[in-house]
Write a structure and sequence with these properties.
586 residues; disordered C terminus; binds adenosine-5'-diphosphate
Length: 586
């Protein structure tokens, strides 16, 4: 297992940012290990002093009282140093996790949509939570434990080998064996754990889908089938957990057995050496005590190897995101655009997702006196076009101009202040109505919130709720219908005061009359809004100044409603299909 480049980057963080805590921790580790290893040494001396080199002689109790006091003092000191080691170790780990979490979340806020399109949200959450936890644990159970273990084994080895070379080697013989067994078992436990997480994920999904689709399950009477699906997923989990228990118990038993075998050998050959007077009884006692103390840290070798393996994979996944380059960003000459928009102009725009060309040579413009509607079959590229205007993606070719200024030269914050997209993917936070409405302008007061919700025709509904604007939305609060969600989303736009407003099929669940009233309210907001409406319903665009019929990424027809009807092309066919006497333009 090679220590990855990313792991080295993690190790460099405390070396750069937590020098003081790292130094305290390492000094504390040196003292903790040395003090602990000195106890068997003094114990051996005491026993020799008590017997005074002669086993037959009466025991003197005084040296035992002295060693008792000494062990007490040493343990106390060891405890203090151990506390510092644990505290600073945890502190460094937490501080690294905090920094990584912040940079990770920061990065996610700024990464372009082209990145978000290619990754699964669940994976990003896992990286942000579980992988950062893996890195955090690595500081204490990896870096610092590596030092602690090294000092324990080194000092232990020096002390036992000084007593007797052969007996010393025998006393150390369990270390490589236990080290290998615990590492192998820890690594296979880790593989099994990853498998278990996946299986628990499936179990959760089965349960989640069953609960979310409870009505469907009951109406088709599929409870038995669902139960069967759940039992299969559940028994797979049981099998994996059994394997987990088997690996754990086997490795613990093998390690205890190995340790006891080498301990028995040391006792047997040690006793012979005592009789031969090559070592003293105190030295034999010290050997046994060293072994007992060493076995604890040695069993942690597996944990150390596991921690390195986990952090190595976790850091690679984290840096995979942190190292992503941001392609939609401000350039050096980005300007703070705050002017009223006289015109938004799209010039020869083309765009592809990878190799899939979605928009070809699109040109049109909108201004406060010239609103634009866009219709066309699904997959024509309408939503993509709407997302290019606030620069969610960079264009392949062509330009988008605000009052003649290329949007790539406008500071993103100002650009998105000027252009507001009411997306078809309406999103509401699990928060109160008030906070959801003023999401774009958190400083808005109640008067403004009321006015915008009135214009979006959602005020009466909110006002009828027991807690009015303080009512929570979402799983713990009220549920909203599709139309209500859209109205709420539109009310955000009323509050945001953007100069260019794009509706991407975001009023489809609102009845035609209300939609018309909302549009009129928008016109009344001032003469200075440039409106672009994408819709499936002809009634949503038929009164706009220009309508574009988009198909396979190109504009097939353009003109106002009358002109397009007269043309008798695709738009006219769509209109006839949706025709309804009250929708006809007079
Ligand atoms: P419309 O809004 O007219 O239905 P879209 O703009 O959503 O059309 O989609 C146009 C084409 O681009 C479709 O072929 C669709 O599969 C593809 N597409 C849309 N979004 C993405 C994306 N994020 N990544 C890759 N391809 C996409």
């Amino acid at each position: 297992m090679s220590i990855s480049r990313n792991l080295v980057r993690i190790i460099k963080i405390p070396l750069r940012d937590n020098k003081r805590d790292l130094a305290i921790s390492i000094i504390a580790i040196i003292f903790t290990a040395s003090l602990q290893m000195s106890i068997p040494y003094y114990l051996g001396l005491t026993i020799d002093k008590a017997f005074d080199g002669n086993i037959q002689q009466d025991l003197s109790i005084t040296p035992f009282i002295q060693i008792g006091i000494l062990v007490f003092v040493l343990s106390l000191l060891r405890g203090v140093f151990h506390y510092f080691h644990m505290f600073t170790g945890e502190k460094i780990g937490q501080s690294i996790a905090f920094k990584l979490r912040k940079s990770y979340f920061d990065k996610l806020q700024n990464l372009s949509f082209s990145f978000h399109d290619t990754v699964h949200t669940g994976d990003l959450i896992t990286k942000g939570i579980i992988d950062i936890e893996g890195v955090r644990l690595f500081v204490n159970t990896g870096i610092l434990r590596f030092f602690l273990l090294g000092i324990f084994i080194l000092t232990g080895a020096v002390l036992v080998l000084r007593i007797d070379l052969i007996l010393g080697l025998l006393a150390l013989s369990f270390i490589p064996f236990i080290g290998i067994v615990s590492s192998v078992s820890r690594l296979s436990l880790r593989q099994n754990w990853i498998k278990l997480q996946e299986q628990l994920g499936i179990l959760t999904r089965v349960m989640d889908e069953n609960l979310s689709g409870v009505r469907l399950v009951r109406s088709f009477m599929r409870q038995k089938y669902e139960l069967q699906k759940f039992s299969i997923a559940s028994s797979v989990v049981r099998k994996t957990t059994f394997k987990q228990i088997f690996i754990k118990s086997t490795s613990i038993s093998i390690n205890s057995f190995t340790f006891l075998i080498s301990m028995s050998l040391v006792i047997y050959f040690g006793a012979l050496s005592v009789v031969d007077q090559t070592i003293t009884i105190g030295e034999l006692a010290a050997l046994i005590a060293f072994m007992s103390i060493l076995q604890g840290p040695v069993r942690h070798i597996g944990q150390l190897v596991n921690s390195i393996a986990r952090a190595s994979a976790a850091s690679a996944r984290l840096y995979d995101v942190l190292d992503q380059s941001i392609d939609v960003k401000n350039n050096k000459k980005s300007i703070k655009f705050n002017d009223p928009v006289e015109e938004i102009k799209i010039e020869n725009l083309s765009f592809s997702y990878g190799t899939n060309e979605v928009l070809k040579n699109i040109s049109f413009s909108a201004n406060p006196k010239h609103s634009v509607g866009i219709v066309g079959p699904p997959g024509a590229g309408k939503t993509t076009l709407s997302r290019l205007l606030p620069r969610f993606y960079n264009l392949n070719s062509g330009r988008i101009l605000l009052n003649g200024i290329n949007i790539e030269d406008i500071n993103l914050e100002y650009l998105r202040n000027s252009i507001n997209l009411v997306d078809q993917d309406l999103f509401l936070f699990s928060d109160t109505f008030r906070e959801n409405v003023r999401f774009g302008r958190p400083t808005a007061d109640q008067k403004e919130i009321k006015s915008s919700t009135l214009k979006a025709h959602i005020y009466n509904h909110i006002d009828s709720l027991p807690e009015r604007f303080e009512t929570m939305i979402g799983e713990r609060g009220v549920q909203l219908s599709g139309g209500q969600r859209q109205r709420l989303s539109v009310s955000r736009t009323f509050l945001y005061h953007s100069k260019v407003v794009i509706f991407d099929d975001s009023t489809s669940a609102i009845d035609t009359q209300t939609e018309k009233e909302i549009r009129e309210e928008m016109n009344e907001l001032g003469e200075n809004i440039s409106l672009i409406v994408i819709a499936h319903r002809i009634s949503s665009v038929m009164n706009l100044d220009e309508i574009l019929y988009l198909d396979k990424g190109t504009i097939l027809e353009r003109g106002n409603h009358r002109e397009l009807i007269k043309l008798n092309g695709k738009y006219a066919t769509l209109y006839k299909m949706q025709i309804n006497p009250e929708l006809r333009v007079k």
